[in-house]
Amino acid sequence: MSPNRQVSSTILPPRKILTTTLLTRNTEPFSIVINEAHVAEIASWIDKKENTYSLINNPYEFKLLLRGTRDGFTANSFWNLCDKQTHLLVIMKVKGTNEILGGNNPIGWDKPA
């Protein structure tokens, strides 16, 4: 407003543009029994959805806790790795067939005394 008055202002440094990077999911196959299409279908069953999740919008991340060929097929190996775990999905393939069996336990396992 005053033409003869010197302008004084604080000059802020330029803003930094932050680029958000999404966490990457592990894309290597975690199972030799089920594939990504099975995982999407199982996730849909867990959420009681009529339509199957697509391979990209599956809200769950599945982690392999026990593999029989790696950890053993005994009850002790199951209890050592799965005791007190919640939201468990147990999947198994019947030897000599293409049949896959399994179940979901959202509460978790508690080893009997």
From TrEMBL:
Superkingdom classification of source: Eukaryota
InterPro entries according to UniProt: TLDc_dom (IPR006571)
TLDc domain span: 32-113
Pfam families hit by this protein: TLD
Name the UniProt record assigns to this protein: TLDc domain-containing protein
